[in-house]
Design brief:
Elements: H1 9-34, H2 45-99, H3 106-127, E1 130-131, E2 134-135, E3 137-138, E4 146-149, E5 157-160, E6 163-164, H4 170-174, H5 186-232, H6 236-263, H7 266-271
Parallel strand pairs: 3-6
Antiparallel strand pairs: 1-2, 4-5
Helix pairs in contact: 1-6, 2-3, 2-5
Length: 272
């Protein structure tokens, strides 16, 4: 090709390589500074779409995990109340036994009856316990059912109904006048304890199920996070090597562009 002043093909091509290498260097800098392999949709449109869906599922699962944890807290509060109720019923049984002692006079029995009245009032207060406005116990069988969602789609659920605290002779222990044998008997107390034990057992089973459900959700969150990381996160070692390569190419192409720009100076020598 002849020597030309108007057109410097070598400089044009060197400038093109310089522009391309500079763009690649900037892309490498963007990835390393952001920690992301995909910094704009053009980098990997399909990968970005998958990543957005995975991020959404992860956020919903995180909310589900919080909901399950709150449900566990509710059940733990309920169990604490039931434990207190069991302790009270046991104390009532102890008072009943001491009240029936033939050596106790009328004043002694009145003392036991006064404590019984206080304990009965406490059981009534326990039945009214709420958790963030939600009744933990129901005094009827028409209790409202609460649905606990266990996955991100809402297809797997668990139903929870407040325990019927007044069933199975609990009323016979928490109500009545004094220690009249017709009102409170050791049989009533035993039946009440069995009812409370059953409610605590049901509570424990519900808590265990929720704990397993929460463990499953947390496992899904971890796996989804890892999958999304493989799509979006930059490989620092690989990208650092690419950055060094692009830096050398930019420097080389810049130097060659400078050389190409003065290459046509030979044409001036011919005109002298």
């Amino acid at each position: 090709m002849g020597i030309s002043i108007n057109t410097n093909v070598a400089a044009t091509r060197a400038g093109m390589y310089l522009s391309s290498n500079h763009a690649n260097l900037q892309k490498s800098l963007d990835r390393l500074s952001s920690g992301r392999r995909i910094t704009e949709p053009a980098d990997d449109a399909g990968g970005l779409a998958v990543s957005m869906k995975l991020e959404h599922v992860g956020k919903v699962l995180r909310g589900t995990s919080h909901n399950i944890a709150n449900a566990i807290s509710l059940l733990q509060v309920q169990d604490g109340v039931l434990k207190s109720a069991g302790d009270i019923v046991s104390r009532i049984g102890e008072l009943k036994s001491m009240h029936d002692d033939v050596t106790k006079n009328t004043a002694d029995k009145e003392t036991y009856e006064a404590e019984l009245t206080d304990l009965q009032g406490q059981i009534t207060d326990l039945i009214a316990t709420e958790f963030n406005g939600i009744a933990l116990f129901s005094q009827s069988h028409a209790a409202s059912v609460t649905t606990i969602y266990l996955d991100e789609t809402g297809t797997r659920t668990m139903s929870w109904t407040p325990s019927n605290f007044t069933a199975s002779n609990i009323t016979d222990v928490s109500g009545g006048a004094g220690f009249d044998t017709s009102e409170i008997t050791q049989a009533n107390i035993t039946t009440a304890l069995e009812a409370i034990a059953t409610m605590r057992a049901d509570n424990g089973g519900e808590v265990r199920r929720l704990q397993y459900a929460m463990a499953n959700v947390e496992t899904q969150i971890n796996n989804i996070s890892a999958a999304n990381g493989r799509i979006m996160d930059v490989d620092v070692a690989l990208e650092s090597s690419n950055l060094a390569r692009q830096q050398v190419l930019v420097q080389a192409s810049a130097a060659m562009t400078a050389q190409a720009n003065v290459a046509n100076d030979v044409a001036l020598m011919l005109l002298q």
